[in-house]
Each structure stands twice: as C-alpha cells, then as structure tokens.
Amino acid sequence: MTTQTVIGTATVLHQLALGVECFDSITGTTVPTRVRVGRQVPERLRPRHPEPAWPCSDLEGSGMGRFKLRYQPPVPAQFVVRIDDPLRRYVPRRFSIHLWPLAAVDDSAAGPYIPVASRVLRVWLWPGSAYAFPRGTTLIRGRVAQHGKPVRWARVAAAGPTGRIAGRAHADDRGEFLLVVTDPDQNPLQDAVVLDLLATAPKAPGPVDDHDRCSDLVVEDVTRSSAPPLPQDLDNGVLRGVSPPPGYVPSLQPARQTVAIGTELLLPDDVSFNPQA
User: Fold this and answer.
1) 125, 153, 173: which is the final residue of a domain?
2) pTM of the model
3) Rounded to an integer, what distance in angstroms lies between the CA atom of residue 70 and that of residue 14?
C-alpha cells in the first residue's frame, strides 16, 4: 500500500488492524498495571503451543493498558482476543473480533474509510481478588457457589434500597468476586446500607481444561453494526461488562447483606446461584 506525503509517494509498511485499550471499571482510567492481551491460537494448533495456560499470540504492547495488532500474514479476519492478569488484580475477559478488511483502512480507497479510533477495542476490566482499593472504600468480598461448588465467571449486581444498582462485580474461575459499592443509595445519616446481591451465570457451564483456566470463559461478541462504526459500536454495555453475556441467567433469589459504609465486608456464606430449572 502506498500513500502520498509532502515529499512524494511513500510505501506504508504497517497498518493498524486492531488496537486494544483496557480501562479500569472503577476509576474509568486505563489500567495502571500490566495485563496480558493476546490473539487466541486456533484449537488445532494448540498442541504445538508452548504455553498451555496461555494459548495465545501476544499483541504488541503500546504503553500501559494499550496493545496493537498490525495487518500482516497470517492474521485471520476473525479470532478471539483474550485479556488476562496472572496476578489476579483484574478478572479475565474474551471477545470475538472481526477485523475490517485492509482496503477499509486505506483512506485512498473508494469505499468507506475506517479511521484508527474506530479500530480500537475499548474494554473495561473488573476488580479481581488481588485488586488494591484505598482505605475507606465500601467493599463486599465473597464467592458465588451452587451446591457448595464455585460458579466460574459469574457476575454479581448489588441493588440498593430503592432497587437501583449500587455496584457490580465479575467473579473469576474460583467464583470469587470483589464488589465495590459505588452508589450506596442511602440516607447520608446512616452508617450502613442493605443490599441485595444477585448472581447471574451460565445455566449450562462448559467443560474446563485443567491447563487453561480461561477455557470456559464466555466469549463476548463485539461485531460492528456498520461501516464506519456508530458510537454504540465503540462503547456499550457489553464492552463495559454490565450487559449479561449470552447464556447467562439470573439466580432466583438474591442474598441480602448489610454493609457498613467505608469498610470491607467478607461474606461468611456463599452467594447462592439457583437458576430456574
């Protein structure tokens, strides 16, 4: 591919196929710690992959929380992006990606041009069990379980006294979650708030690979609806992690808890996941 510059025609050696930008769901800023982002290797090639726990081809780092993939063979047109933090400060996520064709990122082409900003996957990551919160944060630490067994990759929402969502959390492969109460929805004179914790999770969990803890993690689809993309294609409930993934169903009964404002509550009992039969 070539382009015109002020000094003449130049050959373009690299074109951005995909950028990934990871945001902290609590602070709204890019994640301040190193996470790992990769393009998942097709299953038929995994026996030859050197890391069974990370069957991915790493994306190129481009600063803290930012990664990029260039158009170069043999990058496929569709693949799964995996985001993980081995230190468990953030809960992993996976997304199905459909790349724009190379012709669509050439501003000299006749068709619609897809600018760089529209080729960036902006993803919000949720606190994992090792996330460090400042003193005075209202937190709930617990585990989602069904019949005493952890419910992998569950999601938890806390509803305040008026029914408004006061906080959310993503559980990890051990069913553990760390929920920060961002909106207590209470009388400011009260020093505690009553919350209903409701878990959602896959009704029919998939098989688990003993070597790959993310093997059954839901793959969320972020297919763009148009070219060029609309604003809702670049920032929506799926990317922010607040929309339930496909196949997730809610538990029938919430778990009621009283939380002291400004403290961390360690739940003595599991949050039960009891979906409708």
Assistant:
1) 125
2) 0.90
3) 6
What per-residue confidence (pLDDT) applies to 8? 44
For residue 146, being part of any structural domain is answered with yes
Q: Is the peptide bond before 74 cis (omega within 30 degrees of 0)?
A: yes
Per-residue pLDDT reduced to its tens digit, 167-177 = 999 999 999 99
Inside any domain, residue 97:
yes
CB count within 10 Å of CB 246 equals: 11
Side chain identity at residue 207, one-letter code: P
- The answer to whether the CB of 277 falls within 8 A of the CB of 152 is no
Q: What is the pLDDT of residues 215-243, one digit of tens each?
A: 999 999 987 767 778 888 889 999 999 99
Domain extent, residue 110, equals: 2-125
Tokens at 214, concatenated: 């993310």
Alpha-carbon span 48 to 270, nearest angstrom: 39
At 276, list the tokens.
């409708």
Residues 122, 239: contact at Cβ < 8 Å? yes
Rg over CA atoms, the chain: 21
Q: Does any domain span residue 240? A: no
- Over residues 16-67, the pLDDT tens digits come to 999 999 999 999 999 998 899 999 988 777 767 778 889 999 999 988 899 9
